[in-house]
Amino acid sequence: MKPSNDCLSLIKKWEGLHRKRPDGLIEAYKDPVGIWTIGYGSIEHLDLDRPIQQGDVINQTTAERWLKLEVEEAAEDVDRLCQSALTQSMFDALVSFVYNIGIGAFSESTLLRKLNNDVDYEGAAGEFDRWVNGTDNGTRRILPGLVNRRNDEEALFRRDGLNPSVGGSGSSTSGSITTPTTSSVEEYPYKPAPIPLPFTRALLVKGDVGDDSYILNCALAGLGFLRMAPQPNEFSDITKSAVELLQRREALSKIDGKVGPETKRAMENALRRARGLVPSVTPERGVYCRLTRTRKDAYQGLEWCKLEFVDPTGGVVESLKVVSGAPEAQRFLLFSDPDSLPRSLQPIPQGRYTIGDISWAGGKNNYNASHPHPNNGIGPVWVPFVGKQSDDRGDFGFHVDWNWIQEGKNPGSAGCVCPTSLEDLKELVRLLREFDPRLLVVDWGL
Predict the structure, then answer these.
(1) Using CA atoms, how far apart are residues 125 and 127, in angstroms rounded to an integer?
(2) Does residue 15 carry a catalytic annotation?
(3) DSSP assignment letter at 335
(4) CATH, residue 44
């Protein structure tokens, strides 16, 4: 299914073309939640494969071209993820919605679940007005602009009725998304994989057989993860290992050997870089940190989390047990979840963060001093994180669970990542010094 002019008109209406100068060029600006944006809401510089930065300037032709590319990408995501029949107006509304909130938030949304699991169109339509909160001057609140946009999207979603199977106006957007192609395992000559990768299913896993698996193996071979030779049309154990290696090297949020929207997009970007279609602007990554759940009890109602130091070429090199969040608020959420709120005391949201430098309260290697804090909760060491995604929760970082260690009260944290003893804090400092990781990937398995 393809977006219609109604979809483009709606997106243009609400994104707008901001900061157009007298000379016709268009400048970057910060959107209401603090993200550098340009043109019709673009937050990625599609020609340089990086986020929009202060000082970026484009012309209107580029803005229109980027809008078309990003709308097509959002449409492909909706087409893959929605497994129920949709009218054209439903599809257009969902593409506008995904363009605004992002595919990660949409893939975890109740709206999508009501479409896919319940085939509840009325319930799905009622979900639009849940996505109206944003940050204004540091405070999360309902934004009138988002309320009006959601009203328009819901009206478009309802315009042609809520029964796509009636009147011939409906169209299944997914086809064989969840049904693997069944055929015999065969081998074909290697061919360079096309970009974008024309997978017919939203999720590829070990055991799949068919054209999707052949294209996947060719893409992995083109990136050097498989030998350059004839490729099978099977997602084998070898394919799974190659996918996991790609996920590690790209520092994705989930290392599971499966190919979903995030891995597919990372593979397409890697192919573009390998073929010189875009310049490589990121140096080879070194060791990074990954935070995951263990589902094992720690203390005072907290759950142990595992902090791993990961070498993209060699796997996990070190790990520590840590906690995040407070006992009464152990909800592990995506950064984009509407329920991820300031002062919620929840664990750090799933996402990616830049790790800052070590800050000592009383000078280097002084483990007796403590950073000022209303509840004496920080301790001698503070290492800040900066989110790589928009989030109205802030002040994340590494610190020891100091007030619990010193006074036996207030266990856990307000979302920071905490070793639970001085010995573990010293070990964390040692590992930070040795490997100097600058990326934290929080993966709650969402």
Answers:
(1) 5
(2) yes
(3) T
(4) 1.10.530.40
My answer on whether 300 and 269 are in the same domain is no
Q: Tell me the per-residue pLDDT of 50-108, one tens digit each, with 9 for 90 and over.
A: 889 999 999 989 998 999 888 988 898 898 888 888 999 999 999 999 998 888 788 88
Write down the catalytic residue from 15, 73, 250, 308.
15
Strands 303-311 and 288-297 turn out to be antiparallel
Neighbours of 154 (CB within 10 A): 18
The amino acid that residue 187 corresponds to is E
Strand partners, 387: 353
Q: Is residue 114 one of the residues assigned to a domain?
A: yes
Q: What is the pLDDT of residues 209-263, one digit of tens each?
A: 999 999 999 999 888 888 878 899 999 999 999 999 888 877 777 788 999 888 8
| Cα 388 to Cα 51: distance, rounded to the nearest angstrom | 10
- Distance between CA atoms of 265 and 255, rounded to whole angstroms? 15
In which domain, by residue range, is 257 found? 187-274
What is the total count of domains within the chain? 3
Length of the chain: 446
Q: Rounded distance, CA 258 to CA 248, Å?
A: 12
